Amino acid sequence: MNTEKLSQRLEAVASYIPEGSKMADIGSDHAYLPCHVVKKGVVPFAIAGEVVEGPYQSAKRQVAMEGLEEEIIVRKGNGLEVINDEEIDCITIAGMGGALIASILEDGKDKLGPTKRLILQPNISAISIRKWLLENGWELMAEEILEEDDKVYEILVAEKGDPYRPYKELHKELLLGPLLVEQNSAVFRNKWKSELDNWQRIVSQLEKAAESEETSQKRKELIEKIQMVGEVLNH
């Protein structure tokens, strides 16, 4: 991967960045994504934010090597603290756990005023992000699921709006993704079939374990999930 040729998941993230927007890429690593979209003329200005010294230095080197220091500012800081007021209108956060992405958004809520679009790519626990969006007035505009190098990634795109609009069955679709349920793609089905098999294995093990309140509760939660996901896959 380089600034010319992104990975499939980052290409997908890039495809949702509105033309002409000023973006911040949080957890930018080598700054491949901002370099790519600036070079393609999609965005005129970007911030690459990194909290870890090594990736921060890598991003600085990459931006300098590409000759993009006028268009891309690399900043070291935690989450959205790298953004100044009224500076950007699109935020990308890719390649982290969903719970971490949600906590970054929660901790940096005061920086989100001028932000028109969030493009979020969790590696796990997309449900954590959907819950945060729902609680904070962000509407899911698009969802995408893809497989790359035997890993499954989800991309969630949100804008300010009615957070309940995409949902028909809230409890189920927070877990699965309301727009992904509609699309019902082969990658989506394979992901949840695999999860289903895993949950059924755990339930079998719990049934053999010594009965306790904890094992009983865990089994109940898993059976509920199995029924929920089974309904969607059978439908």
Give me some keywords for this one.
alpha/beta, seven-stranded mixed sheet, 7 strands, Rossmann fold
| CATH topology term of the largest domain | Rossmann fold
Q: Please report the total strand number as a whole number.
A: 7
**Number of H/I helices:** 9
The helix fraction, in percent, is 40-55%
Based on secondary structure, the structural category is alpha/beta
Determine the mean pLDDT: 95
Rg calculated over all Cα atoms: 19 Å
- Unreliable parts: none
Gross morphology is elongated
In order across it, which strands form the biggest sheet? Answer: 3-2-1-4-5-7-6
Largest sheet: 7 strands, mixed
CATH superfamily of the largest domain: Vaccinia Virus protein VP39
User: How many structurally independent domains?
Assistant: 2
Helices and strands, in order, run as HEHEHEEHEHEEHHHH
First-residue to last-residue Cα separation = 38 Å
CATH architecture of the largest domain: 3-Layer(aba) Sandwich
- Estimated share of beta-strand residues: 15-25%
Coiled coil: 189-216
InterPro entries: SAM-dependent_MTases_sf, TrmK
Keywords: Coiled coil
Protein name: tRNA (Adenine(22)-N(1))-methyltransferase
